[in-house]
Amino acid sequence: MVSVTDPVTLIDVDPSSSVAPYEQVRASVTALVRSGALAPHTRLPAVRRLAVDLGLAANTVARAYRELEAAGVVETRGRLGTFVVDPSAAEGGGRDEAREAAREYAARMRSLGVSPERAVDLARAALADG
Q: Are residues 122 and 114 in contact, defined by beta-carbon separation less than 8 angstroms?
């Protein structure tokens, strides 16, 4: 296990934000991993502990952890806990950055109240503009 500052103190959730709390947790952990503030093999707090510390429901944190695992940012090792994945050991040499960018874009569009159809149209137009 890597010794770092308690991850709870690094995770940022803004209760006044229009972005869903699970998405804020997911984005915050992803940014901390990418910046190196959360090193590979760092154990994240248990779902219930993080929920209590952040003032969130356990289901909210559990959803964030599931999303992080689906994106390849963390892995759950049963009762041992949830750990930051070592990108150099991940299949394909790292996380799928395009998928992550798409998730961030989708979250931003939802927070702005943009319909999925309009969001896709905007993305297509942006890609066409180069």
A: yes
Which of 11-15, 47-51, 75-79, 99-103 has the least mean pLDDT?
A: 99-103
Q: Is 34 helix (H, G, I), strand (E, B) or coil?
A: helix
pLDDT, tens digit (0-9, with 9 covering 90-100), for 32-57:
998 889 999 999 999 999 999 999 99
Compute the distance between CA of residue 75 and CA of residue 49 in angstroms, rounded to an integer: 18
Domain segments of the chain: what residues? 7-95
Quickly count: other Cβ atoms within 10 Å of residue 57's Cβ: 12
Kindly report the pTM of this predicted structure: 0.66
**CATH no. for 7-95:** 1.10.10.10
